Amino acid sequence: MKQSLWARLAQVGLLAVWTCVWLVQGCGPGPGYGIRSRTRRLTAMHYKQFFPNFSENNLGASGRAEGKITRNSERFNELVCNYNTDIVFKDEENTNADRFMTKRCKDCLNRLAIAVMNQWPGVHLRVTEAWDEDGHHPPGSLHYEGRAVDITTDDRETEKYGLLAQLAVEAGFDWVHYESKYHIHCSVKADHSVAVEKGGCFPGWARVTVAGGVQKSLSSLAAGDRVMALSGTGQVVLSQVLLFLHQDHESWSTFLSLETEDGHRLALTPHHLVFLSSHCRLDSSEYEAQFASRAKTGDCVLIHTAEAQVRPSRIISVSEEESVGVYAPLTEAGSVFVEGVLASCYALMDDHRLAHWAFGPVRLLSSFNHLLWEETRHEPLTTDSETARLETHRSALAVKDTAGVCANNSTLETRGHPSEAPRMETRGTQTSDVHWYAELLYSLRWTFLDSNSFYP
User: Fold this and answer.
1) Signal sequence span per UniProt (predicted)?
2) Same domain, 180 and 230
């Protein structure tokens, strides 16, 4: 009992020391794959281009329309009024209708207003249309719900609009369309949408590689397992899973699916980080961690080979799909190869290096526990056949074979697309869980970092 109490006090002490150092430094080294993080270069959008590359009402963009809001409806209370003095509201109806919008739309618009002033000193953002109560738009328009705005700059210089559209993407609008030569159309998901919940994850059917080259689904992965990852020096290593930042066995979520020219298919939530580059080079230091929502056809990702090397692979399609289970393993290395594609363990914040550094206390405590009790948290993988029996046993606990799921040399395979995997039942007493340390860091985000560093 005394030893356990002393150990807990030591853990708290380590956390306190690390937090103090964090407050003093504000940023730290962490694995950057050989480089310091670079400022992303803004590229102006082209006329008629929209981002992401889905239709506006697609779940991967702003989502379905939910019905018109009028001043007399109960849902009118969901709208907020935007009195930001840095934004010029056209308000041609003289009813303040253009100031009404959802909270998410207001937050994105206010971020964009700051970005416009930073980009063009003396220039302000101008809103020509927001909530529509007069029926000026086609049926189903998100303007009727306060989820869409049409914007320009107040100097009305149309040559700025391509870059304005890209700034709107950076500000967090869920769909941006360079719709007209005279304005940009932007929209957002509904405030209560599941798609805007916190967290970034992979689906339960997604597989990682463990010791011996064995494939294991995330739904059967456990803390202590060692999975294939990329070290800070760019080497493929087996890295221990310390814990799950998010683990929900039953929820259905929308994932972006990135398919590469080599047949790899990575599914992850839009706000999870994946390593991308516009050039397919071998040097892993050329790849920058970016939100999956920024991935586009032609970008390159890193995949691992059978010889435990990395090589680039070009993305040939970006689509969206729904699947069961959300899992976010945290490894010692801070990265993980999922379905053979390198991804970060982190989400929501666009700086992988800083996120990895912020989780330093977790790694320290893991090492401390290992030294104190001389225990290993990973499973003893003695033989491939033994691992195969364990994986077969675990997969038997799932709902079986509506999509043709089978176990073959401990690799879960599907006849057809992986997203067709069956709905998995909750095993034992496991429940949905977001790790407390991740929640703590997220709750402190605005105190120490600029809001633009986070996924809106």
Assistant:
1) 1-26
2) no
